[in-house]
What does this fold into?
Amino acid sequence: MTFTIRPLDPLKDARLLHGWVTHPKATFWMMRDAGPADVERAYLDIAADEHHHAFLGLHDGEPAFLMERYDPAHRELVGLYEPEPGDVGMHFLVAPTDTPVHGFTRAVITTVMRHLFEDPAVRRIVVEPDVRNTAVHALNEAVGFVPEREIRTPEKKALLSFCTRERFTAATGVAV
It folds into this structure.
């Protein structure tokens, strides 16, 4: 599988993203009731934020997933844990499909992790998925995340988890 990642263009990509974030499988993305203008506005806000960035993942040149990178010392997790130098927060969402491919989502998260660890300043990746999202917990574990504890964010009860370069490489065999 060939994946590439490019910066998200909120104006060009909002219509596509609207279909993804409002799909029933994206319930944990918390945008199920968003209209196209809401999605565009949300990603314009991210584009204007120096501590939060959005990217579009392509599979063989076609849009396939959304990735967000954020600084947990300034967004999402402020006051909920003690950030360390080199921490980066991550969200990802795979596009809905009528023809699922076995192993695709695991390949996506592996690509996302490798992309984040390509930045030498990144020492640890932080995630905070909803505690009910057992599918993503299994994926996170498969790429080396270790849960630390449950936390309460304004939007959800979340499972705070961390992955170091070493754990990622040990879990996936991908050197970064």
User: Anything to note?
Assistant: The longest strand covers residues 62-70.
